[in-house]
Write a structure and sequence with these properties.
By secondary structure, the protein is an all-alpha fold. The protein has 26 helices and two strands. Strand 1 (554-555) and strand 2 form a beta hairpin.
Length: 572
């Protein structure tokens, strides 16, 4: 029998004795402790029952402070179960009680938790207000570590809304506050988050530096779970760079460490990301095995949000393997679950997934409706990358409907949005699709030979540098398997440029394309001749929008919704 199980037995025996003696306050205290033991054992529903009994007993005795403490316990359990609206109710009740008692530190703590809960619900402005209030209160009380926590969470808000430079500012502030004796762990937390935001900015060398610094600091402090978080983050960097074998090494190291630490949720997160890597490598059955393992683990833990995330991911694997009806079933389940949880952003991303399925099934009108609705929601939430992805999809749909000017308007909007954030690979993908619009217009219109040749020339001038850039990215991979996986992803893009060159009967261009694709290392991909967009340089910037988010990625087989779950478990 474990320590917590043994503690529960003793507390229950004490409770029964106090009950026979009619000592209600002691009964309530035992209920509280039994609830704490249950939550330590992962029995959250049982813990909630005991905390509720304790709260009601304290309320009958008019013990306001004890009632408030029970509300905080209930809020904590609700958060662990992913019931963030319910947690908010409990924190608001606790805050009101602490306010009546004149307890500013506890009020600030409730404000902080209300802020972090609002992040989970996608209510970022409300989160910012709560966290700013908490930060100011802690500052007045001279509670430096708590101020750093607030700055850190304000960084999470900024990162969730793709305001990565603002996020960096908050994380740096938090780290600098912690640069004093006795706060080594907090300083390491700052390094970890700076690594995360650098990853999302596509600044991968900087990300690795921060994550390795954090990992070494955690190792020196004998904090294995935090070391595993850093391994997980390094796996994300490798994943975003399509260095999938390196990503596997980091994710497996993280998973094994989490397993030794006995943290089931984090193990499940690694399973989810191992499934993502398997999907990228085209190993769809292996991907389903990993993601089903994550699904079952989160289900056992009663984590409704994470189960919905797994359903979305399973749908994504089906999209990649072209099992579209099965994909729709999974994403419909996820959509309904997120609806019950009132998670607006995730509902919108499911809409993008359903739109992608409709696109692949040729249901273009339905696809357009899904993407327009998702775009409106993401725009209201200031989710710039998701808006750009919706614009890309709307542009692709317009090309297929022969609405070429509308297509180029959407695609230019997506390209410019990605360019502002230096997501260079996504810019190149947009350039290829803009070129596709010129190709389709040239092939589908009754044009004079000269006009057709002119459109084809525009198409190749836009597409060739972008495809050469995409092709050159395979030279960064150390693993042959990763190079092969990347080449497979861009096969259709490469074939498209050669198709235009053949249509132009430009033998010199064909020869140049072959020579460049074989011999080049890292290239610069320029935009079309009439564009003032800057030159693209460096590696792909496959940034993830936020922790536990959906990645929106392109493949060589057409665009699809990417995979959720590449965030660090600590952000949940």
């Amino acid at each position: 029998m474990g320590q917590f199980e043994q503690a529960r037995v003793h507390y229950l025996a004490a409770r029964d004795t106090y009950a026979r003696l009619g000592l209600a306050r002691e009964v309530a205290r035992c209920e509280l402790r039994v609830g704490s033991a249950a939550t330590e054992l992962g029995q959250f529903e049982q813990g909630c029952t005991h905390f509720t009994v304790a709260r009601d007993l304290h309320a009958a005795l008019i013990l306001v402070r004890e009632v408030a403490d029970c509300e905080v316990k209930l809020a904590t359990v609700a958060t662990r179960l992913g019931r963030f609206d319910q947690a908010r109710v409990h924190y608001l009740a606790a805050r009101a009680a602490f306010d009546r008692l004149g307890m500013p530190r506890e009020i600030a703590a409730c404000e902080f938790r209300l802020g972090t809960g609002a992040i989970e619900l996608g209510e970022y402005e409300q989160a910012r207000r709560h966290l700013s209030t908490a930060r100011d209160s802690y500052a007045l009380l001279g509670l430096v570590p708590e101020v750093a926590d607030c700055e850190h969470s304000l960084g999470d808000v900024a990162r969730s809304t793709s305001q990565f430079e603002q996020a960096r500012f908050h994380y740096l502030t938090a780290r600098d506050i912690c640069a004093r004796p006795g706060m080594a762990r907090e300083a390491a937390n700052g390094e970890f988050s700076l690594g995360t935001v650098a990853t999302e900015l596509g600044q991968f060398e900087e990300a690795c530096t921060h994550l390795i610094t954090a990992r070494d600091a955690y190792a020196s402090l004998s904090l294995p779970a935090d070391v595993a978080d850093c391994e997980h983050g390094l796996g994300n960097v490798a994943n975003y760079l399509s260095e999938f074998e390196q990503a596997l090494i980091h994710y497996l190291a993280a998973r094994d460490t989490y397993a030794r630490c006995g943290v089931a949720r984090e193990v499940a997160t690694c399973e989810l990301n191992l499934g993502t890597v398997a999907t990228e490598l085209g190993q769809f059955e292996q991907a389903r095995t990993h993601k089903n393992a994550a699904h079952e683990a989160f289900g056992r833990l009663g984590m409704a949000r994470e189960v919905a995330i797994c359903e979305f991911n399973l749908g994504n694997v089906d999209i990649c393997s072209r099992a579209f009806e099965q994909a729709r079933t999974h994403i419909d389940v996820a959509h309904e679950a997120f609806g019950r949880l009132e998670m607006v952003r995730e509902i919108a991303i499911c809409g993008i997934g359903l739109g992608t399925i409709a696109q692949n099934l040729g249901q273009l009108g339905q696809a357009r409706l899904h993407h327009l609705a998702a775009r409106d929601t993401c725009s209201r939430l200031d989710l710039a990358r998701e808006v750009a992805y919706c614009d890309f999809c709307l542009g692709e749909i317009a090309v297929r409907l022969f609405e070429f000017e509308r297509a180029r308007t959407h695609l230019a909007a997506a390209r410019d949005s990605y360019a502002r954030r230096e997501f260079t690979r996504e810019v190149a993908d947009c350039e290829v699709m803009i070129a596709e619009s010129w190709w389709a217009q040239a092939e589908g219109s009754k044009l004079t030979s000269g006009n057709r040749q002119g459109m084809l020339r525009v198409a190749v001038e836009i597409a060739a540098p972008a495809v050469v850039y995409l092709d050159s990215m395979r030279f960064q991979f150390r693993s042959a398997n990763d190079r092969i996986a990347w080449a497979r992803r861009i096969t259709l893009c490469t074939a498209f440029v050669f198709r235009i060159a053949h249509a132009l009967d430009d033998q010199q261009l064909i020869a140049d394309l072959v020579e460049t694709a074989i011999n080049s290392g890292v290239h610069a991909a320029h935009t079309g001749p009439d564009s003032d967009m800057p030159v693209l340089r460096g590696h792909s910037a496959r940034a993830l929008a936020r922790a536990a988010t959906f990645e929106l990625a392109g493949t060589g087989e057409g665009w699809r919704v990417g995979l959720l779950g590449c965030a660090s478990p600590r952000s949940w």
